[in-house]
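Narrative progress, year one. The postdoctoral researcher (J.K.) led the effort to move from monomer predictions toward full complexes, under supervision of the PI. The following entry was the first complex the group processed end to end, covering 603 residues in total.
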Amino acid sequence: MQQRTEFRIVIYLLAILAIAIPLVSGEYITRVAIGSLRYVVLAISFDILARTGDLSVGHAALFGIGAYAAALFNVYLKVPTELGPLVGGLTALPVAVALGFITLRMKGAYFSIATLAFAEAMRVLFLYARGITFGAMGIGVPPIFGGNVTVDYYTILGIALASILLVILLERMGINYAFSAIRENEDAASVLGINPTKYKVLAFSLSALLAGAAGGFDAGYITYVYPYEVFSITISVAAMIMPIFGGLYTIEGPIIGALVIYGVEEVLRGWMPFGYTLVYGLTLIISILYLPKGIIGLIKEIEGKTWLENLKRGT
Amino acid sequence: MLNLVLQVLLNGILLGGFYALVTLGLNLIFGVMDITNFAHGDLIMLAAYFSFWAAKLFRIDPVVFIPINAAIMFVIGLIFYRVALKPVLRAPAYNQIALTFGFSVFLQSLALVLWTSDMRQVEVPYASIVFQIGPISVGLGKLIAFGIAIGFTLGFLLFLERTKLGGAMRSVSQDSMAASLMGIDVSKVYLITSGIASMLAGVAGSLVTLNLYIDPFIGGDLTLKAFGVVILGGMGSYLGMIIASITLGLAEALVGAFLPLGGSLAPGIAFAVIVAVLAIKPTGFFGK
């Protein structure tokens, strides 16, 4: 019980901090916070899909589709960029349904291979269709909320909170049990009457909704969409490493992973402009080999054994 | 028009031969260990930079360097087995994908630090020699790459069929439990398989420098094409792999020739192939 109360206090403190950031800190810190919250959404998006045991190696595809949808709807149909997250999410969702029904039927690495190819294909396609997408030049759009950083911050905070709520809802509604059953043993799950493909497509669509929303926000926030930027492998890699490092299949894991890794990246990028992705690769390797349940798993393990007692004894 | 078609066919077949060698190591590791290696293309990229270094620092021709590169990459393959494959041999697909992808990111970033993102090229004197056969032309560089690629691919398949070690590899890929009961040291076969797969990647890496520019990101592109080939041909099937390689090479050559700037669409073709096969016949056209 004590653990729970302590945990709640930490959560409340973090919530107050999250709300207060743009009010008490300067523009730079707020922008870093916006950047990290965007990755919180992507990490949660990756984690929802991973709950069925499927690994997206090209999550940038969904993020990029969201970003391009927001930009193209703005340029051709004058849809305001403020609606970008909605437009982006709702565009990425049906794409994921279509791709999911084709690629999620097979066990093994097929889905991951398809996602990797998907991200590459989207990049060359958006580069190629210059008549519509302006190719490598990218598309400029008006800034979301007139470029007000504080409002931008609360927008992405809202999307992040909505993503967390979605995961809580999945867990409360019991859909998560179906996801876990499929992940643990697909054949056993189908014997129990769970249709694996259906649930996998559901997980992939929800994942796409969030990744597309993050991309749709990004378009209006950065005010420019470049194919090399929004479909970059760095985004796919980050979306994968953050939740794995933090701890998959938990609510807190992806959030902690995104905040820690984005923070480290922000520092490293300064003095290692080329090689900071080296840390990405190493983090993923070390996480898989030595931290299979991520930071959250490590904390829980230590906590479960000795942490609280030691604290009480004062050692 | 007929000349153009002939030219495209030739280009496609030459490219396809190279893709067969690119895919061979990926297919081998999948067949024997049941692991999909997402870092396979990055091993080729690494070997391409070794070839670049050999040419730049010691003026060694990429073709002459092939045996040395193969030996270096064989050792790297042994190390790769210890750090990237052995820990996840019996693990769920999720761990295998994440770990090998982690190594892909690691190798790419390492190349960025060592060689920066600049495009590099090895200049060989004979690359500019072009043969004219009637209306169609073919560069000597491409012809050499094709010959060596096909030579190594067929040579390896012969090794798999005729030698004791090759037989051990085949039996492990059919049933590792039964193989171990027959007295085959399975973990040793795994180790050597990884070495050979990486060695073949080394040969492919040398051939890359013969005709193409290299940068740290070519590995992802090569992995993607190898995936397109194994999915089209059926994972673990070698006959399927050769036919699928030529098919992918032809498809790329066709799109490159008949669409304006079609050459830039190559990754899109691999994706289209993957989705189409998974939609129509998920086990590939020659799969088990």
